[in-house]
């Protein structure tokens, strides 16, 4: 069973969540689209209500045409990039409501666009990501340990990629 610690940045004790089951119901998202130069906005509603569950250890594929709301759904489920959105509905973790801060601190998804810095080594890239994403209260040793676990788990060192510059390791594969 995996354990996930969520940092409540307001100083309250950390929550520990085991084997997370994510469920959502009646998600309705409105986006503000600029209508004119006078800051008038119109609301564009996403047409579909979705009821879904994602069980621990499972894989969910979200498919659809361009503009159908795949990324918006992921943003809602991970509580990211919500500034221009009005969200109604319920997102639950293990059947309970949790704060958007908790959801954002324990969830993520891989962006559509490459976020690699092509002149960094694989290790440097991992460090860059750790510095951006992990709890600022973690010590440098804890962050280095996290990076080492990823390198070991993915056999990066055995493949000779740890000190390889990303551009050389993964040339334009698009």
From TrEMBL:
InterPro entries (alphabetical): ABC_transporter-like_ATP-bd, ABCG_transporters, P-loop_NTPase
Which domain of life does the protein's organism represent? Eukaryota
Q: What UniProt keywords apply to this chain's record, in alphabetical order?
A: Membrane, Transmembrane, Transmembrane helix, Transport
User: Membrane topology for this entry?
Assistant: Multi-pass membrane protein
Primary location recorded for the protein, binned into one broad class: membrane
- Kindly give the SUPFAM superfamilies that the UniProt entry links to this protein: P-loop containing nucleoside triphosphate hydrolases
Q: Name one GO molecular function term.
A: ATPase-coupled transmembrane transporter activity
Compartments, record wording: Membrane
Q: Which Gene3D superfamilies match?
A: P-loop containing nucleotide triphosphate hydrolases
- UniProt-listed Pfam families: ABC_tran
Q: Is Transmembrane helix among the key words of this record? A: yes
Q: Which residues form the ABC transporter domain?
A: 53-152
GO CC terms on record?
plasma membrane
Keyword Transmembrane set for record: yes
- Which PANTHER family does the entry link to? ABC TRANSPORTER G FAMILY MEMBER 28 (PTHR48041), PROTEIN SCARLET (PTHR48041:SF139)
Which family, according to UniProt?
Belongs to the ABC transporter superfamily. ABCG family. Eye pigment precursor importer (TC 3.A.1.204) subfamily.
What protein is this chain from?
A: ABC transporter domain-containing protein
Organism, scientific name? Oppiella nova
